[in-house]
Amino acid sequence: MAAVSAPAPELRLPEGYGLLPGRSSAVTRHWYDTFDRRLLSAGLELYVEVEGSRTLVVAGRLGQPDASAPWSGAARSLPEVVGAADLGPDAGAVVLGRAGPRALVRLVTARLRLEDHRVVDAEQKTVCRVVIETATTPGADGSVRNLATAPLRGYEDETAEVAAALDAGQVHLLPALLDAVGTLEAPGSGAPGRDLRPDLPAPTALVSILRHLLETVQANVPGTLARWDQEFLHDLRVAVRRGRTVLKLARDVLPEEPRAALAAELKWLGDVTTPARDLDVNITDFPALEAEAVADELRGDIAPFTALLAERGETAHYNLQSALRSARFRRLMAESLASLLPSEPVDAQPLTAELARRRLDETFGRVIKRGRRIDESSPDEAVHDLRKRAKELRYTLEFFSGLLPGDQAGPLVKDLKGLQDVLGDFNDTVVQRALLLEAADALAAEGASARTIVVLGEMRRELARSGQKARGQLKERSAQLRRWRTEGRWDRLVGSLR
Amino acid sequence: MRVLAVYSIKGGVGKTTAAVNLSYLSARNGRRTLLWDLDPQGAATFLFRVRAKVKGGAGGLVRRKVAVAEAVKETDFPGLDLLPADFSNRHLDVVLDHTRHPVRRLARVLAPVARDYEVVVLDCAPSVSLASEAVLRAADVVAVPVVPSPLALRTYGQLEAFLARQSRRPVLLPFFSMVDRRRGAHRDLLEAEPPDGQGRPWVAVPASAQVERMGEGRAPLGSYSPRCAAARSFEELWAVAERALFKPPAVGAP
To answer: CA-nearest residue of chain A to B73?
Structure first.
């Protein structure tokens, strides 16, 4: 859908209908959605509309929202993020479930001119209203125009007839405006390797994937800094991990010095984001674990521990914000890609398909080898190492999945995800048990009550139980993955690379 | 939902004019309003420019084969819907006669939209019939246009006497209609004691060119000539009707 700066659309009505112009008005509309456009994907929209002193929050089906409530806050300074308290029960019921854990952030603001017209039949009776909505927003060339029809009760057939005649002029304003400013998809979203061609020189392909991933990092910085929701930081970290995987795949393909330098910088970025992310997860997870593991008579005694987590969370986010505002981070984002493209002639470089085949075989082999070594007595570090290799394989498959016909990588990604879930569950229990032990020392030193220490102990015991359970599933999950090799499915998959 | 019927045994006394203007004023004052045109002539339907056609006809509605909500048409005036008439309304008596509890029937037909509307205005055909009995049974208030003449007053007296014999009696709201103060007979009646013995002067709606133009403009008076004498009289009449419709229950009432 392209933005149009076309002349006013002609209101071509079916025979027997006429048009009577009504009033015109101007409003400002601020659309909100989750950063990953969950409302839009579900065919919904949410906006705050300001007309003079009247401010409404409106939600519902895209193009026909029907839940509205007066805006309770100040219209002059609408927030970047809205929550349940701003929306009222009707609009909240429409959108909050869809948003899930994600914040509703302001996506686009437009100035709208609304020209109201009545469509009348041969008796001059109004059968529906047509509103010409002309929207302009900074950053878009021209304006976006929509013809919205609103039926009168009892005239639905006539309205459908009119709407069908006006079909060419009907667009949904929100996606059209986002398209006009180039943010129909969330910045940095989408599969990073989706445009790869098998005959593309591998360095070009890898740098293109890296560029996409760094865009994803950058796109998630404002939400991470403002702490709109936890997913911004999560997505930022995933992009960093994927970037590190690309740089491993780029061994002997991209110039070594800048490759190693960028790898070191991404490791730094990953490391500085870890404490804040871990604390985000812990602050969410521990109350649930308490409910499950701690006896009723000890409820409430967890408070010193949650306060400790909250305090550490604040410190971790402060440190993270400092890192994301640092000159080092700015340099990483601005300069690191420039030196990566090799100066060798193109014909001396491997092609993308060739590199994909080689690297997929290597990463798959590493996962199989490490998976085979894991048993009941393997150290936690070995399990964690398998987890990292499994992630690398999954990312590699995702990067090159566009070179496979159809969705051939899908079933393998599903099996890998099964393995990763178990590995993730296990790793969480290891990390959280260590945290509980360390926190118990710290709280005891501060004079926490024995009851609080008992609570931490009970949670630790529960984590040990679930860790054992996860470890018990590892063997089967690894075997499931090995069957890809023994049954020849892996060779067929890699062989189908175009 | 409260029901206001505009009813008269006699025809041509300004019934539809009153029904159209009262329903318009009700909606304009913020009350969701439905006007049900029960007159086979469909004059109210015509005045709102709605096609005189009801799916399944009056029989379909009364026998509840067609839901009221499906037959309703939104007018060009915010908050005012119309249940149009068509010529099949002339069989309303026959249709009612073939139903159980015919006198209670209209009230039952309206029950499904009771939450949608605060006020339902019934524009009735001039007659004494099963249909008019059903209308009087369904109504909370009955507005009765009376042309200032001895014969019209006698007819109003007959209506009063009829209702006095009923177990459920709506509030009667008589008003003078088509008043011409140039005529001595009209002036005399207007200046005399109110004929219903209630001591409350009747609202007098004048005969006027603006009212006659409703047929050409096909719109309620208030939408094109809100300051004319007739429009002001209807506002006065609506104020009385609204008080009667929404008066608080008497102390001790169940």
So the answer is: A154
Closest Cα in chain A to B50: A125
Which backbone phi and psi does A329 adopt, to 5 degrees? -65, -40
Residue B202: DSSP 8-state: P
Residues A124, B50: C-beta atoms closer than 8 Å:
no
Q: Do B49 and A123 touch (CB under 8 A)?
A: yes
Q: Choose between A92 and B89: higher pLDDT.
A: A92
DSSP structure class, residue B198:
S
| pLDDT of B249 higher than 70 | no
Q: What residues in B contact A152, CB-CB < 8 Å?
A: 73-74
Whole-angstrom distance, CA of residue A269 vs CA of residue B101: 82
Asked if the Cβ–Cβ distance from A125 to B50 is below 8 Å, we say: yes
Element (H, E) at B178: strand B171-179
Shortest Cα distance, chain A CAs vs residue B208, angstroms = 25
Residue A378's Cβ-count burial label (10 Å; 0-12, 13-18, 19+) is middle
User: Which residues of chain B neighbour A126 with C-beta distances below 8 Å?
Assistant: 76
User: What is the complex's ipTM, to 2 decimals?
Assistant: 0.81
A–B interface: beta-carbon pairs under 8 A: 26
What burial letters (b/e) apply to A455-485, b meaning 16+ CB within 10 Å?
Answer: bbebbbebbeebbeebbebbeebbeebeebe
The answer to whether the Cβ–Cβ distance between B49 and A153 falls below 8 Å is: no
pLDDT(B252) > 70: no
pLDDT winner (highest mean) among A78-87, A116-125, B159-168: A116-125
Which of B71, B76, B81 is closest, CB to CB, to A125?
A: B76
3-state secondary structure string, chain A? CCCCCCCCCCCCCCCCCEEEEEEEEEEEEEEEECCCCHHHHCCEEEEEEEECCEEEEEEEECCEEEEEEECCCCHHHCCCEECHHHHHHHHHHHHHHHHCCCCEEEEEEEEEEEEEEEEECCCCCEEEEEEEEEEECCCCCCCEEEEEEEECCCCHHHHHHHHHHCHHHCCCHHHHHHHHCCCCCCCCCCCCCCCCCCCCEHHHHHHHHHHHHHHHHHHCHHHHHHCCCHHHHHHHHHHHHHHHHHHHHCCCCCCHHHHHHHHHHHHHHHHHHHHHHHHHHHHHHHHHHHHHHCCHHHCCCCHHHHHHHHHHHHHHHHHHHHHHCCHHHHHHHHHCCCCCCCCCCHHHCCEHHHHHHHHHHHHHHHHHHHHHHCCCCCCHHHHHHHHHHHHHHHHHHHHHHHHCCCCCCHHHHHHHHHHHHHHHHHHHHHHHHHHHHHHHHHHHHCCCCHHHHHHHHHHHHHHHHHHHHHHHHHHHHHHHHHHHHHCCHHHHHHHCCC
Structure-token match 């501060």, residue found = A446
Residue A85: its pLDDT value, please?
Answer: 84
Select the highest-mean-pLDDT range: A159-163, A270-274, B110-114, B138-142. Answer: A270-274
Do residues A227 and A276 touch, judged by C-beta distance below 8 A?
no
pLDDT band per the 50, 70, 90 thresholds, residue B67:
confident
Tokens of A425: 């569950």
Choose, out of B32, B36, B73, B116, the residue to mutate when testing the contact with A (most A CBs < 10 Å). Answer: B73
Strand partners, B63: none
B2: part of which helix (H) or strand (E)? strand B2-6
pLDDT band at A98 (very low <50, low <70, confident <90, very high): very high
Q: Do B73 and A155 touch (CB under 8 A)?
A: yes
- B168 has pLDDT over 90: no
Interface probe with A: pick from B47, B49, B117, B218, most Cβ of A within 10 Å: B49
